[in-house]
Amino acid sequence: MFSTSEKPLFRAPALFSSFSTLIAAESTRHGGVSPAPYQSLNLGLNTADNPRFVEENRLRFFSALGINPERVATSHQVHGKEILEATQPGRYDGYDALMTNQPDLYVAVSIADCVPILVYDGKNKAVAAIHAGWKGTVAELVRLTLETMQQQYGTRPGDCYAYVGTCIDETSFEVGPEVAEKFAPEFKRVDEFTQRTFVNLRSANTRQLTNFGIPTAQIALSTYSTVLNNEDYFSHRYENGQTGRLMAVIGLKS
After folding, report:
1. 244 and 44 in contact (C-beta within 8 Å)?
2. Which of 90, 162, 203, 204 has its CA 20 to 30 A from that of 186?
3. Could you tell me the pTM of the whole model?
4. Which keywords annotate this record (predicted)?
């Protein structure tokens, strides 16, 4: 789990710690082989980093978690609202949420400011990984994913545990008026001195979890920010687009 600098390759949500067959974690930027500006654990295939470095980083990340990299399902994300029910591992295209009820199959999303949400349905042994930027948040991708799990797996709110992961924080996510108008007042703040508007993506996505009916005691939020804790996480905005990608992954051991 640790590189030579004793920095963690990943952080595992304590919310899931009591489930012995569940693997869930989000990566940090530590313990990889990529040079600047992708240093060091860049897991993003769609960056200008050397693909061999990214593959090595992915191998290190998954190996540290005890996951076979050949058993992971990911997608090229497009900031949309399409949901993939993964039955096989592989690299897909066009999905921003992936779900599965297959054991020994892990679903993962890439992030570098957007919100990763990991969901576990303990009764039906189903999981989901969701990538929600502002577009996915406005499209209520979290709600859509939960409703799809309900239809496909019989998922009920009381059986779900959800982790809202590391993302850009409310003090850093400034938006223009065309984006601000898409958010309810409780999720945005106007600075009284500059009149600039800031949006809280983490809270907006958490509301979708609670609106579905997941008990608040079964929801956990990351205490980290990709901007404020940039020494540990990649931030596309803070690093002006020249940076790596984090990954959030979840699945059940067979």
Report:
1. yes
2. 162
3. 0.96
4. Hydrolase, Metal-binding, Transferase, Zinc
